[in-house]
Design brief:
- The chain is α+β, with helices and mostly antiparallel strands.
- The protein has one domain.
- The chain is built from nine helices and four strands; from the N terminus they run ααβαααβααβααβ.
- A four-stranded mixed β-sheet has the order 2-1-3-4.
- α7 runs parallel beside α9.
Length: about 180
């Protein structure tokens, strides 16, 4: 009986170790190239030393990335960390209004140099089609990065999967990282 208990305990420990080893791959999103033939979105890999949104904000927004899903290339190049964190915090505290969707031609509804989760949701809630929303995301020319937590946030709030997939295609991120 002791042998059986020991065997079960060792099996459980081995399972936990195997799961932990598999989770390490979640912390490194893969880079997906962007089809630049019909889009202005810039892949993160095309910047000389690509700085991800997570590196731009440091640990200020946690590993989930906060509300920040895209930034203008100059915001990243100039390492405008405080502005990025402020944009995320503002998006969370005071979400984009539907009127802003109609006053803007891109996904950066408040023209702050960042695209946030609330702006993506506002476009879909304002009645823009998936293609119109994706077109506005591309028009920004920003660098996109969507974490699994942000993707879950969008899909839990009924953002169209086509829009979420487009966010991945425009920057850094992967469905495989879930």
């Amino acid at each position: 009986m002791n042998f059986f208990r020991t065997f079960c305990w060792l099996g459980a420990v081995a399972g936990v170790v195997a799961l932990m080893a598999g989770c390490q791959s979640l912390s490194r999103p893969s880079i997906k190239p962007v089809n630049t033939a019909d889009t202005r979105a810039i892949p993160a890999a095309s910047i000389q030393h690509p700085l991800t949104l997570a590196e731009l904000t440091g640990e200020d927004l946690g590993m989930g990335g906060g509300f920040l899903v895209a930034a203008a290339p100059e915001k990243i190049r100039n390492r405008q960390r405080q502005q990025a964190v402020a944009a995320s915090n503002t998006a969370e505290a005071s979400p984009a209004r539907l009127e802003q969707v109609h006053e803007s031609t891109t996904a950066d509804l408040n023209n702050d140099g960042f695209v946030t989760l609330d702006e993506v949701l506002a476009m879909t809630r304002a009645g823009l089609s998936d293609n119109e929303t994706i077109d506005r995301l591309r028009k920004t020319g920003y660098i996109f990065q969507v974490t699994p937590q942000q993707e879950r946030y969008l899909t839990d709030r009924r953002a169209p999967q086509k829009v979420v997939d487009a966010l991945h295609e425009m920057g850094v991120g992967s469905h495989a990282s879930q």
